[in-house]
Specification:
Blueprint lengths: L1 E6 L3 H14 L3 E5 L4 H10 L3 E3 L3 H6 L3 E4 L6 H5 L9 E4 L6 H8 L4 E6 L10 E5 L3 H7 L4 E4 L3 H10 L3 H17 L4 H24 L15 H11 L2 H19 L7
Parallel strand pairs: 1-2, 1-4, 2-3, 4-5, 5-6, 7-8
Antiparallel strand pairs: 6-7
Helix pairs in contact: 8-9
Organism: Methylobrevis albus
Family: Belongs to the pyrroline-5-carboxylate reductase family.
Protein name: NAD(P)-binding domain-containing protein
Length: about 260
């Protein structure tokens, strides 16, 4: 049985564990660190394969594959003194932290892999980007979404920045729901409609990808119609230009977050 350990048990780690339990239940033993007490305790209570360890050192000592899920600027202090072994595989979820930095923190572990999972992994959906190729890691994640094995580490950094628009996506959905409520629509109906609309639109783009087609916004609007008017309004106000500017700002913020921070 493969032994998996999670150092740093936050929301993302919980989502990954949830997905792993859907695909590998009974075939893995999972240790979670005691930090984020509420999450680690809940995971141990929910899954027979999950055990809450007494310390991060106990997680590393008892694992074949160790997942790092702390904040990027906590890497050095969170891993200091942990008993990593040469025969271990270490998987880093730390956005923006290069492999050479992680390798130095987890030496002498030889196999170090970066993975960029997203919250939908809990439902075995969404992209999972990995670098470099590693058969053990690929086997673990291949059933948890659309696995992409990148050919350059730089791709993971860029993808990590692009993924930081997730909460803004939810904010936009909520703003649309709020507008419908102001128009007198019942909350349950408004929320269900908006969530389903965005889910359906995402499916259209995925089907286009599978068919080798591009998604041209102009093909989803009528000349002089409502969609055309809305997109034109966003262009006029600089909304789409602000997306790129925001991504650049996020990239700069990611660099600041790499500076070491004391772990409580």
């Amino acid at each position: 049985m493969l032994r998996l350990g999670f150092v740093g048990t936050g929301t993302l780690a919980a989502a990954v564990i949830g997905g792993l339990e859907e695909t590998h239940a009974g075939r893995v033993a999972i240790l979670v660190s005691p930090r984020s007490e509420a999450i680690s305790t809940a995971l141990a209570a929910a899954h027979a394969d999950v055990t809450r360890a007494a310390s991060s050192a106990a997680v590393v000592e008892g694992s074949d594959v160790v997942f790092l899920g702390m904040r990027p600027n906590q890497l050095g202090e969170a891993t200091a003194g942990l008993p990593f072994r040469e025969d271990q595989t270490v998987v880093s979820f730390l956005a923006g932290v290069p492999l050479d930095v992680v390798r130095a923190a987890v030496a002498p572990a030889a196999a170090v892999v970066r993975v960029n999972p997203l919250p939908p992994i809990r439902f075995r959906k969404g992209p999972v980007v990995q670098y470099p190729a590693n058969p053990v890691v690929e086997d673990l994640f291949s059933g948890l979404g659309d696995l992409v094995v990148a050919t350059r580490e730089a791709d993971l950094h860029a993808i990590g920045i692009a993924s930081a628009l997730m909460s803004s996506h939810y904010e936009m959905q909520n703003r649309v729901v709020a507008w419908l409520l102001k128009r007198g629509m019942a909350e349950d109906a408004a929320t269900a409609y908006v969530r389903s609309m965005y889910d359906g639109l995402a499916e259209v783009t995925l089907q286009a990808l599978a068919a080798g087609e591009t998604v041209d916004p102009a093909h989803h609007e009528t000349r002089g119609g409502l969609n055309e008017h809305g997109r034109a309004r966003f262009r006029e106000t600089g909304w789409f230009d602000a997306v790129e500017a925001t991504l650049e700002s996020i990239a700069a913020h990611a660099e600041r977050l790499r500076k070491p921070e004391k772990v409580d």
